[in-house]
Amino acid sequence: MKTDLIFGDGPNKIYNILKKQIISGKYPIGKELKIQKISDEFKLSIVPVREALRMLASNKLIKLRIGKSPIITGINEKDILEINRIRLALEPLALKDSMQYHTKDSIKTCLRIIKKDQFSTDPIKKADLNNQFHIALLKPTKLKRLFDIISHQFEGITRLTHIMVIRKDFQIKSAHSEHLNIVKAIQDKKNSEAIKLLKGHIVDSTKRIKSLLSNAEIEPQFTSTRQS
After folding, report:
1. Which domains are present in the chain?
2. Boundaries of each HTH gntR-type domain copy (predicted)?
Protein backbone atom coordinates (compact mmCIF):
# COMPACT_ATOMS: atom_id res chain seq x y z
CA MET A 1 0.00 0.00 0.00
CA LYS A 2 1.30 3.43 -0.94
CA THR A 3 1.70 5.99 1.80
CA ASP A 4 1.81 9.78 1.92
CA LEU A 5 5.14 10.83 3.38
CA ILE A 6 4.81 14.54 2.73
CA PHE A 7 5.78 15.27 6.33
CA GLY A 8 8.46 12.58 6.37
CA ASP A 9 11.39 11.60 4.20
CA GLY A 10 9.40 10.81 1.04
CA PRO A 11 9.66 14.16 -0.78
CA ASN A 12 13.32 14.65 0.17
CA LYS A 13 14.23 11.13 -0.91
CA ILE A 14 12.58 11.55 -4.30
CA TYR A 15 14.00 15.06 -4.70
CA ASN A 16 17.58 14.02 -3.94
CA ILE A 17 17.51 11.01 -6.27
CA LEU A 18 15.90 12.88 -9.19
CA LYS A 19 18.18 15.86 -8.64
CA LYS A 20 21.26 13.64 -8.85
CA GLN A 21 19.93 11.97 -12.01
CA ILE A 22 19.16 15.31 -13.69
CA ILE A 23 22.55 16.82 -12.82
CA SER A 24 24.36 13.69 -14.05
CA GLY A 25 22.66 14.01 -17.44
CA LYS A 26 20.54 10.86 -17.18
CA TYR A 27 17.50 12.71 -18.50
CA PRO A 28 17.74 14.75 -21.71
CA ILE A 29 16.54 18.33 -21.77
CA GLY A 30 12.84 18.46 -22.54
CA LYS A 31 12.06 14.97 -21.25
CA GLU A 32 8.74 14.69 -19.45
CA LEU A 33 8.67 13.30 -15.93
CA LYS A 34 5.58 11.15 -15.50
CA ILE A 35 4.24 11.60 -12.00
CA GLN A 36 2.48 8.23 -11.86
CA LYS A 37 5.57 6.41 -13.10
CA ILE A 38 7.74 8.06 -10.44
CA SER A 39 5.12 7.24 -7.81
CA ASP A 40 5.19 3.57 -8.83
CA GLU A 41 8.99 3.43 -8.86
CA PHE A 42 9.26 4.80 -5.33
CA LYS A 43 6.20 2.92 -4.08
CA LEU A 44 4.78 6.16 -2.74
CA SER A 45 1.59 8.07 -3.46
CA ILE A 46 1.65 11.04 -5.81
CA VAL A 47 1.50 13.53 -2.91
CA PRO A 48 5.21 13.34 -1.95
CA VAL A 49 6.09 13.06 -5.65
CA ARG A 50 4.37 16.36 -6.39
CA GLU A 51 6.14 17.97 -3.44
CA ALA A 52 9.51 16.69 -4.69
CA LEU A 53 8.75 18.07 -8.16
CA ARG A 54 7.96 21.48 -6.68
CA MET A 55 11.34 21.38 -4.96
CA LEU A 56 13.06 20.56 -8.26
CA ALA A 57 11.17 23.39 -9.98
CA SER A 58 12.30 25.85 -7.29
CA ASN A 59 15.89 24.97 -8.23
CA LYS A 60 15.11 25.44 -11.93
CA LEU A 61 15.85 21.80 -12.76
CA ILE A 62 12.37 21.18 -14.14
CA LYS A 63 9.46 23.28 -15.38
CA LEU A 64 5.98 22.65 -13.99
CA ARG A 65 3.16 22.83 -16.54
CA ILE A 66 -0.56 23.13 -15.88
CA GLY A 67 -2.35 20.02 -17.10
CA LYS A 68 0.86 18.49 -18.43
CA SER A 69 3.81 16.54 -17.08
CA PRO A 70 6.78 18.61 -15.89
CA ILE A 71 9.81 18.68 -18.18
CA ILE A 72 13.57 18.84 -17.67
CA THR A 73 14.73 22.40 -18.25
CA GLY A 74 17.72 23.60 -20.22
CA ILE A 75 20.86 25.34 -19.03
CA ASN A 76 20.31 29.05 -18.66
CA GLU A 77 23.36 31.11 -19.61
CA LYS A 78 22.53 33.82 -17.09
CA ASP A 79 22.26 31.30 -14.27
CA ILE A 80 25.54 29.58 -15.12
CA LEU A 81 27.46 32.85 -15.26
CA GLU A 82 25.78 34.03 -12.06
CA ILE A 83 27.09 30.88 -10.36
CA ASN A 84 30.65 31.90 -11.12
CA ARG A 85 30.00 35.47 -10.00
CA ILE A 86 28.83 34.04 -6.68
CA ARG A 87 31.92 31.85 -6.53
CA LEU A 88 34.20 34.79 -7.31
CA ALA A 89 32.64 36.81 -4.50
CA LEU A 90 32.43 34.07 -1.87
CA GLU A 91 35.22 31.55 -2.42
CA PRO A 92 38.02 34.05 -1.61
CA LEU A 93 36.22 34.86 1.67
CA ALA A 94 35.98 31.18 2.55
CA LEU A 95 39.60 30.57 1.58
CA LYS A 96 40.78 33.51 3.70
CA ASP A 97 39.10 31.89 6.71
CA SER A 98 40.09 28.32 5.75
CA MET A 99 43.82 28.86 5.49
CA GLN A 100 44.33 29.23 9.24
CA TYR A 101 42.59 25.89 9.82
CA HIS A 102 44.30 23.81 7.13
CA THR A 103 46.32 20.88 8.49
CA LYS A 104 48.83 18.49 6.97
CA ASP A 105 46.00 16.01 6.42
CA SER A 106 43.69 18.53 4.74
CA ILE A 107 46.53 19.66 2.46
CA LYS A 108 47.28 16.02 1.61
CA THR A 109 43.64 15.58 0.63
CA CYS A 110 43.90 18.52 -1.77
CA LEU A 111 47.11 17.15 -3.26
CA ARG A 112 45.62 13.68 -3.75
CA ILE A 113 42.72 15.18 -5.70
CA ILE A 114 45.14 17.24 -7.82
CA LYS A 115 47.16 14.11 -8.64
CA LYS A 116 44.05 12.21 -9.70
CA ASP A 117 43.03 15.13 -11.91
CA GLN A 118 46.49 15.27 -13.47
CA PHE A 119 46.30 11.68 -14.70
CA SER A 120 42.60 11.58 -15.61
CA THR A 121 41.46 11.95 -19.22
CA ASP A 122 37.74 11.48 -18.53
CA PRO A 123 36.08 14.93 -18.76
CA ILE A 124 33.22 14.00 -16.44
CA LYS A 125 35.67 12.61 -13.89
CA LYS A 126 37.82 15.73 -14.20
CA ALA A 127 34.78 17.93 -13.58
CA ASP A 128 33.98 15.91 -10.47
CA LEU A 129 37.59 16.16 -9.28
CA ASN A 130 37.51 19.91 -9.84
CA ASN A 131 34.48 20.14 -7.58
CA GLN A 132 36.14 17.89 -5.01
CA PHE A 133 39.23 20.09 -4.95
CA HIS A 134 37.33 23.31 -4.32
CA ILE A 135 35.28 21.66 -1.59
CA ALA A 136 38.43 20.25 0.06
CA LEU A 137 40.20 23.60 -0.28
CA LEU A 138 37.43 25.49 1.50
CA LYS A 139 36.12 22.82 3.89
CA PRO A 140 38.30 23.84 6.89
CA THR A 141 36.45 27.16 7.13
CA LYS A 142 34.42 27.75 10.27
CA LEU A 143 31.96 29.80 8.20
CA LYS A 144 29.72 26.83 7.52
CA ARG A 145 26.78 28.75 6.06
CA LEU A 146 29.13 30.36 3.58
CA PHE A 147 30.61 26.96 2.76
CA ASP A 148 27.15 25.48 2.15
CA ILE A 149 26.23 28.27 -0.27
CA ILE A 150 29.46 27.76 -2.22
CA SER A 151 29.24 23.96 -2.38
CA HIS A 152 25.72 24.22 -3.80
CA GLN A 153 27.01 26.24 -6.79
CA PHE A 154 28.93 23.33 -8.30
CA GLU A 155 25.77 21.46 -9.30
CA GLY A 156 25.15 23.78 -12.24
CA ILE A 157 28.76 23.51 -13.42
CA THR A 158 28.59 19.72 -13.23
CA ARG A 159 25.38 19.65 -15.22
CA LEU A 160 26.89 21.90 -17.91
CA THR A 161 29.88 19.58 -18.22
CA HIS A 162 27.72 16.49 -18.63
CA ILE A 163 25.69 18.13 -21.41
CA MET A 164 28.82 19.28 -23.22
CA VAL A 165 30.28 15.77 -23.03
CA ILE A 166 27.09 14.33 -24.51
CA ARG A 167 27.32 16.89 -27.33
CA LYS A 168 31.00 15.96 -27.79
CA ASP A 169 31.89 19.67 -27.62
CA PHE A 170 33.75 19.45 -24.34
CA GLN A 171 37.49 19.98 -24.51
CA ILE A 172 39.47 18.80 -21.51
CA LYS A 173 41.01 21.78 -19.75
CA SER A 174 43.13 20.58 -16.90
CA ALA A 175 43.14 22.88 -13.91
CA HIS A 176 45.49 20.78 -11.80
CA SER A 177 48.44 23.16 -12.25
CA GLU A 178 46.34 26.14 -11.14
CA HIS A 179 45.07 24.17 -8.17
CA LEU A 180 48.59 23.11 -7.24
CA ASN A 181 49.80 26.72 -7.26
CA ILE A 182 47.02 27.67 -4.83
CA VAL A 183 47.95 24.85 -2.44
CA LYS A 184 51.67 25.73 -2.62
CA ALA A 185 50.87 29.34 -1.73
CA ILE A 186 48.94 28.12 1.32
CA GLN A 187 51.82 25.85 2.33
CA ASP A 188 54.23 28.78 2.03
CA LYS A 189 51.93 30.96 4.15
CA LYS A 190 51.45 33.32 1.21
CA ASN A 191 47.79 33.90 1.97
CA SER A 192 47.30 36.95 -0.24
CA GLU A 193 48.91 35.13 -3.16
CA ALA A 194 46.63 32.11 -2.64
CA ILE A 195 43.54 34.32 -2.73
CA LYS A 196 44.81 36.12 -5.83
CA LEU A 197 45.43 32.80 -7.59
CA LEU A 198 41.97 31.52 -6.66
CA LYS A 199 40.32 34.66 -8.05
CA GLY A 200 42.29 34.34 -11.29
CA HIS A 201 41.36 30.67 -11.53
CA ILE A 202 37.63 31.44 -11.26
CA VAL A 203 37.89 34.31 -13.75
CA ASP A 204 39.57 31.98 -16.28
CA SER A 205 36.89 29.37 -15.64
CA THR A 206 34.19 31.96 -16.36
CA LYS A 207 35.84 32.82 -19.68
CA ARG A 208 35.89 29.15 -20.68
CA ILE A 209 32.23 28.72 -19.74
CA LYS A 210 31.26 31.81 -21.75
CA SER A 211 33.06 30.33 -24.75
CA LEU A 212 31.31 26.98 -24.35
CA LEU A 213 27.89 28.57 -24.01
CA SER A 214 28.49 30.89 -26.95
CA ASN A 215 29.20 27.87 -29.14
CA ALA A 216 26.15 26.04 -27.80
CA GLU A 217 23.51 28.73 -28.12
CA ILE A 218 21.88 27.19 -31.19
CA GLU A 219 21.43 23.86 -29.44
CA PRO A 220 18.00 23.13 -27.90
CA GLN A 221 19.41 21.90 -24.58
CA PHE A 222 20.78 25.37 -23.78
CA THR A 223 18.63 28.36 -22.94
CA SER A 224 20.45 31.53 -23.93
CA THR A 225 19.38 34.78 -22.31
CA ARG A 226 20.10 36.52 -25.62
CA GLN A 227 17.53 34.54 -27.56
CA SER A 228 14.10 36.04 -28.07
Report:
1. 10-73 (1.10.10.10), 76-223 (1.20.120.530)
2. 8-75
